[in-house]
Fold this sequence. Notes:
single chain, alpha+beta, Metallo-beta-lactamase, Chain A, 7-stranded mixed β-sheet, 6-stranded mixed β-sheet, 6 helices, 27% strand, RibonucZ/Hydroxyglut_hydro, hydrolase
Amino acid sequence: MKRPICITCGTQYGDMEVYPETCPICKEERQYVNPDGQEWTTLIDMQKKQFQNQIIEEEKGLYSITTAPTFAIGQTAYLVQSDGFNVLWDCISYLDEATIQAVKDLGGIDAIALSHPHYYSSQVEWAEAFHVPIYIHEDDAKWVMRESERIEFWNGESLELTPHLTIHRLGGHFLGGAVLHVKDVSGGKGLLLTGDIIQVVADQEWVSFMYSYPNLIPLPARKVKEMAQKVKPLKFDRLYNAFHRIVESGADEAVQRSATRYLQALEGELFHT
């Protein structure tokens, strides 16, 4: 039996005798099929190659975890340490004994929480290694490609993990698209981990919002306005996306002004061309 991992998106599937013909996550408009065709690997095969995970302390209470060389989408997972509770925000495909030990040395993981399906990757492998639950919004349940009793589907607009850690559903990129608000880091000013539900752009004082990033399909104005309104009550000085881009300060204000600019662009008020 194999547990295939899609080389393009990094999603791990459940036990199968043969590789699937296609990856449903890559087959729709928010992702893409590799121009060379559908390709698969397994975690066991990846462990035989030169992959390794790099763990970096970004600030007190926050560590980034990335795979080198870059695999699939190349996203960053974050280990958040908050008042004795450690949560892994988003996930990556690669996992080995060295990573497990390094994370245990940092206090381990108490829960895994996901922003959206593109980062489910090998989430069940991680959950089983650390014996923890996985929190996914029920609106994105159909995108789970490896089922597990460790997955807990939550509903509604927010889920409080602890008094300092709350997941908020914003939708947008995916119906269940979520962000993680952390109150007790960044010197007590708070931070927001967004995956790419809210995307930090090249000018890192700004963010943006998209339905499909690789295929450049925008979100409608009403949805962006709704997303901005949902995070407006939250206080966060810093914002991290899934690709090591950071709004260093005033991030809560940056989201609001970025949403305003986005709406002005869609409505033809920002420029004439």
